[in-house]
Amino acid sequence: MTRGRPGGKYARMYRLGMTPWEGYAAAAAPSVAAVLDREESGRERPPGRALDLGCGRGQYTPELARRGWDVVGVDVVPRAVEEARRRDPGIRYEVADVTDLPVGLGTFDLFLDIGCFQGLDPAHRAAEARGVTALANPGATVLMLAFGASKWRRLVEGAAEHDILTAFTAWELLDVREADTAGLGFPMNRTSPRWYRLGPRTVRA
User: Fold this and answer.
1) Which residues, listed in sequence order, are joined to residue 175 by a DSSP beta bridge?
2) 8 A C-beta contact, residue 13 and residue 19
3) pTM for this predicted structure
4) CB-side neighbour CA atoms (13 Å) of 104
5) Which one, of 74, 120, 125, lies nearest residue 97 by Cα?
6) Which end of the chain has the least Cβ crowding within 10 Å, N or C?
């Protein structure tokens, strides 16, 4: 689930046909559905606009669309976006770098980041956070699944709560929960994945 910039490791893995995160995505589908159920509880219907950050070939974007979100999936690899468009012609997918999100995407009520943030270096993590902040509607939320750092870091890059809050300075942590590791297999099931839910930081008098 590592994301990169054009020409980086992420794009190279697509060229080589090595996309293990797609298998992890299939295994994690029930867990993701449960998280989205919780997120949608109490929201009006339809729920609003959602941006799937680092959508790849559309592992989760169709689920958001099925639930009634006006969703846009973005990924930096054109080949991945082209395949996503072929699979789901009714869904909007755009080639875009999560560290330089175009304002033309519009504004959003939900940002879904599953394994994207953790694959970036600190400067690009901060750039992603600035882009998300610029596109956030009032009351927007960020749902992020990130794997913790481990001795398998060369295989699975990780991010901790501190890393997320250091980048998302305009946001505060609303909730953090351990993620289900059933079906993920080694080494993903050894990395203590967690779901983070963020909301815009409130100004207190």
Assistant:
1) 197
2) yes
3) 0.87
4) 7
5) 74
6) C
pLDDT along the chain (205 residues), means of 10: 48 63 68 91 91 93 96 94 95 96 97 90 94 97 84 60 96 89 57 88 62
Asked if residues 137 and 125 have their Cβ atoms less than 8 Å apart, the reply is no
Total count of residues recorded for the chain = 205
In what helix (H) or strand (E) does residue 61 lie, and over which residues does it extend? helix 61-66
Token representation of residue 75: 């990924």
Helix (H), strand (E) at residue 12:
helix 9-15
19: left (phi over 0), alpha (psi -120 to 50) or beta: beta
Q: Are strands 194-200 and 171-178 parallel, antiparallel or unpaired?
A: antiparallel
Cis, peptide link before residue 46, omega less than 30° from 0: yes
